[in-house]
Amino acid sequence: MKVATAISTRRFISALLTSLLLVATAARADQVMVAVAANFTAPFNKLATEFEKDSGHQLVASFGSTGKFYAQIRNGAPFEVLLAADDETPAKLVKEGAAVAGSPFSYAIGKLVLWSAKPGVVDAKGEVLKGNTFQHLALADPRLAPYGAASVEVMKKLGVYDSLAPKLVTGETLAQVYQFVSSGNSELGFVALSQVLKDGKIDGSSWVVPAELHTPIRQDAVLLNPVQGKAGPLALLKYLQGAKAQAIIKAYGYDTPK
């Protein structure tokens, strides 16, 4: 029943976006203001190139934490589409009247990775967390970034959070966490698989965190209210649900909704 419900929901969303797109002004190319969760930077850049080529619309993207984008949107930032790192923020924006009801859908399901830029630091089962032989462990701010909240959840489930708390280094976004680890300022850190996966491989050393150790990181897209009949934002949301976009998203280490 859950699978059938999910399929029905996605069909409803697709139909909704199609109907909205038909009534939008499609005769001209639009410039679309998009707020994109930092973990989705690499796949979005690839998607943007393909979308602009296929649709004629132009995307103007800002990358950052979902929590910060929420505050900016509520304060009147002129974004038209939000690609969040969670499913709670889009739902909250709809409830508060800042996004279009019925438009949110999951475009990707994120994967969390414990990563070090150096070989041999992180073992394949994450036992390094229990060994506690390092000086710094980086993660995204759990108050702003869903991946940060998932990182805390993992450490608590493993029973190591209290002992590791003094060694935690917090970045505002996953991009900052990546910089901390890649520069060597932190020996290891929790990042998104999409940030470290290159041609199917991960440099350094890593542990892909089992999905059962944290709440699923369902990343939802939502149409924001300033759209006012423009075709571009609607076209982008529909494009994200297509086979071409889904293949690109998977290639960057995400799962996609069934």
UniProtKB/TrEMBL annotation:
The membrane spanning regions, by residue number, are: none
Asked if RNA-binding is a keyword of the record, the answer is: no
Q: Which UniProt keywords apply?
A: Metal-binding, Signal
Q: Which residues constitute the signal peptide according to the record?
A: 1-29
| Protein name according to UniProt | Molybdate ABC transporter substrate-binding protein
Q: Which PANTHER family match?
A: MOLYBDATE-BINDING PERIPLASMIC PROTEIN, TUNGSTATE_MOLYBDATE_CHROMATE-BINDING PROTEIN MODA
Record bears the keyword Signal: yes
The family classification in the record reads: Belongs to the bacterial solute-binding protein ModA family.
Task: Report the InterPro entries cross-referenced here.
Answer: AvModA-like_subst-bd (IPR044084), ModA (IPR005950), ModA/WtpA (IPR050682)
Name of the coding gene: modA
Tell me the superkingdom of the source: Bacteria
Q: Species name for this entry? A: Hydrogenophaga luteola
SUPFAM superfamilies given for it? Periplasmic binding protein-like II (SSF53850)
